[in-house]
Amino acid sequence: MSASWQLWRDKRGRLSWLRIATLALLLFPLAKALFDADAIIHGARPINDMIHRAGFWALVFLGATLAVTPLRRIARYGNLIEVRRMLGVGCFCYIAVHLTLFAADKGFDLGKVAHEITHRWYLIVGGTAWLGLATLAATSTDGMQRRLGGLRWRRLHRAVYGIALLALIHYFQQTKADVTVPVFAASLFGWLIAYRVLAWWQDTGELSTLSLFALSVTVSALTFAGEAIGIGIAFHVSPMRVLDVAFNLRAGIRPGWEILAVGLSVTALDFVRARWNSRARRLRAVAAE
Ligand code: HEM
Fold it and tell me: How confident is residue 280, by pLDDT bands cut at 50, 70 and 90?
């Protein structure tokens, strides 16, 4: 078997626990679907259930792909970059299954599939994101990277942010009632994109612990405000009332709290890793004297 197909091995051909863990993560939704097979088959709409699962996990892996760069800097764990391509291609595999299941739901009548994708807004948006992800997956190989050249390749792959935005819009458009998970997903993507914008603006690869703290609090505040305004408009209630319910935890833990918890956790991780690294540097300097 060619080494490039042995996904559990790193570039030097050594067994990599990071890659094995990533593979396990990518296969988890498949295993879960098999575990739930009985409930899926006897459910009201088995194919629709699987369309939802594939779409949801594709979005999760898209988020995981975008999280690699901030996380490897915050955790000071450069090796994480090794699994970014695996996560991105994994995302595309789930999105390919998502579209195949959609076609299966239409009895593989490709005329009908094409007609729906070009005539319903949420499918036009999803279809555009799909084409974008397919382009990124097709150009993700080392050969394509060489052929395009580093700069052009990086420019092309920046499209992932626009694709993520389209995927989120598609998610919101087809959500019928409870927007809790889509709002949390949007806030998480917002945090990841704001991280990059801030790093670019400050002209630095790494954000300070204080910047991470400020970023997390700001994204959390915007999530509370966005959800309150959205629910206020949709249900003709005052956003202040929605905020009151959210702050008093009367509607459970809202996405604003969840993103704050995630943001503060990575801020704490950054704080610990920064101190750990500087202590290790000091010890090395003392040992070298
Ligand atoms: C041609 C492309 C696409 C088609 C035909 C399509 C079709 C669908 C359909 C039919 C649904 C279920 C709607 C319902 O039950 O009312 C759905 C849901 C969803 N799709 Fe797509 N989609 C496409 C692209 C994408 C892309 C690119 C993403 C993200 C990367 C995505 C993520 C999702 C998500 C997250 C859901 C909701 C899952 C949930 O309920 O948890 N879709 N899509």
Answer: confident
Based on C-alpha coordinates, what's the Rg of the chain? 21
Closest Cα to atom 15 of ligand 1: 48
Q: Is the CB of 129 under 6 A from ligand 1?
A: yes
- Bridge partners (DSSP) of residue 283 are none
Ligand 1 centroid – CA 48 distance (Å): 10
| Predicted local confidence at residue 264, as pLDDT | 98
Any atom of ligand 1 within 6 Å of the Cβ of 130:
yes
Measured CA to CA, the distance from residue 232 to residue 237 in angstroms comes to 5
The region of weakest confidence among 13-17, 192-196, 284-288 is 284-288
Q: Is residue 172 within 6 Å of ligand 1 at its C-beta?
A: no
76: left (phi over 0), alpha (psi -120 to 50) or beta: left
DSSP alpha helix (H) spans, the chain:
17-35, 37-41, 46-74, 84-105, 110-119, 121-138, 142-148, 150-157, 160-174, 180-201, 209-235, 239-247, 255-288
pLDDT band at 1 (very low <50, low <70, confident <90, very high): very low
**CA atoms of 28 and 90, how far apart (whole Å):** 11
Angle at 74 between CA 68 and CA 77, to 5 degrees: 65
- Residue 31, pLDDT above cutoff 80: yes
CA distance 246 to 254: 6
Residue 167 Cβ inside 6 Å of ligand 1? The answer reads yes
Q: Does ligand 1 lie within 6 Å of residue 76's CB atom?
A: no
Cα angle at 61 between 37 and 214, to 5 degrees?
A: 135
